[in-house]
Design goal:
By secondary structure, the chain is α/β, with parallel strands linked by helices. The protein is 45% helix and 17% strand.
Length: 449
């Protein structure tokens, strides 16, 4: 239980109909009660809404609706109060100022959720899922986040921990109580298949996580080509809006233009780039350099050709530049000709101007990254990069344990790697997470969360 009472605005700052201010801590109800003019909040029914006015005796700030959540039946498992007031900048700031004057302090970013975690209401994976719910931009992202929030990731972690502990416990019993004749003598021969089974399960979770990561984080797709092949037109066509300026003048796009495209559940971060060519124009040259860096950082390159003319030396250079990248070749202006044909690689032909072939291009992007994968209603996927990194570390520790077995080391040496794996998997839920990690994770939350 935290000693200090904290306050924070849970709604976004700005002009709005309503704002919600949260107060949490031992003295939350008492502090709000001093400033609330209405029923005594210490005796109102829990989780009810009470109407009144907020302010000091000689100055009313606003009429408010107040909800009281006595411990432990609250978001933080502490005494908690939510004040619904009118929107705007001044009302909420004045209410917070008075609450601080009467004993509360301003909450740090994410401190309400941190307290929920520290007080055992949620684990670390559920806390991260809260931010994923808030930040979701596609339905698939939201579904993925909700599965983490309801504890599906925690259940999978607990299952792995239980299996590891059973193996570790069997080793410990053999080491500590060798005189017992009725217990199974644990040898490397017995341990090896158990560890291999667990390693296979981790490998399966890691394989699934690639789909989860794509859904959670999206992909970066850069549109590349020589000047005037219709890159900006393609961007506009994919988005269904006029995001980029389109003219017949080569070199119109000189800097990166970024936009987000929801492709059937995949959030695609589209980047339109300057046409790549040799130039003496300083500004255009900077844009081209940025385009090349965007190619290096991209998950996918959409390399655009002009189907109204034959392949040029510059097209060939771009093919070589993007050879090692995951890419889709796009033949634009198919309504004006069909002069580009590469025998060794498929080309998706489109007319960005007339929106022909765009559905086929979208389907190809989806196929490249997700194939036929879908989020099953009851399936939880590891999607967070931190979680995936931990799973990879656990798999590595299990590999070390199997190496120790192959080298015929005693079981107590094998146990060292198994204990390491158990400690690592606990970092996902926060069971074994260091304080520095907690500070980093919760600092990304908003003040009122």
């Amino acid at each position: 239980m935290q000693k200090e009472t904290i306050v924070g605005q849970a709604t976004a700052s700005g002009i709005s109909a309503l704002n919600i201010i949260r107060v949490s801590g031992n003295d939350a109800i008492e502090i709000v009660n001093r400033l609330f003019q209405g029923k005594n909040l210490s005796i109102v029914p829990p989780r009810s809404i009470t109407y009144g006015h907020f302010g000091e005796p000689d100055r009313i700030i606003d009429e408010v609706m107040v909800s009281v959540f006595p411990e432990p039946q609250s978001y933080t498992r502490e005494n908690m109060v939510e004040i619904n007031c009118h929107g705007g900048f001044l009302v909420s700031s004045e209410i917070i100022r008075l609450l601080i004057k009467h004993g509360a302090r301003m909450a740090n970013p994410g401190e309400f959720t941190l307290r929920a975690y520290l007080n055992g209401r949620i684990d670390l994976s559920e806390a991260e899922s809260i931010m994923d719910v808030i930040g979701a931009k596609t339905i698939d992202q939201l579904q993925l986040a909700q599965k983490g929030l309801r504890g599906d990731i925690k259940k999978k972690v607990k299952d792995i921990q239980t299996q590891l502990l059973e193996i570790i416990a069997s080793i410990e019993v053999n080491i500590d109580y060798p005189e017992y004749e009725d217990i199974l003598v644990i040898s490397n021969t017995i341990l090896k298949p158990q560890i291999e089974t667990l390693k296979t399960k981790i490998a399966h979770l890691l394989n699934e996580s690639q789909t989860g990561k794509i859904i959670r984080e999206g992909i970066r797709a850069v549109i590349v080509g020589k000047p005037n092949v219709g890159k900006s037109s393609l961007l506009n066509s994919l988005l269904g809006e006029e995001k980029a300026i389109v003219t017949e003048i080569s070199g119109t796009t000189r800097d990166l233009i970024e936009a987000e495209w929801n492709l059937n559940g995949i959030l695609v971060h589209l980047i339109d780039t300057a046409g790549i060519r040799d130039t003496t124009d300083i500004v255009e040259k900077i844009g081209i350099d940025r385009a090349k860096k965007a190619i290096a950082d991209a998950d996918l390159v959409l390399l655009v050709f002009d189907q109204s003319e034959a392949l040029t030396d510059l097209d060939e250079k771009l093919l070589a530049l993007t050879l090692t990248k995951k890419r889709i070749l796009v033949g634009n202006k198919i309504d004006l000709g069909n002069k580009v044909d590469l025998e060794m690689e498929k080309i998706i032909n489109v007319s960005a101007k007339n929106r022909k072939g765009i559905d086929q291009l979208a389907a190809e992007v989806h196929r490249l990254f997700l194939g036929d994968a879908r989020i099953e209603p009851r399936s939880a996927l590891f999607a967070n990069s931190r979680h995936i990194g931990i799973l990879e570390s656990v798999k590595s520790s299990l590999d070390d344990a199997l190496t120790a077995i192959r080298n015929q080391l005693p079981v107590d040496m094998v146990e060292i790697d198994l204990k390491k794996a158990w400690s690592e998997i606990g970092e996902i839920t926060g069971e074994t997470a260091p304080n520095a990690l907690l500070d980093q994770l919760f600092s990304s939350f908003c003040l009122g969360k």
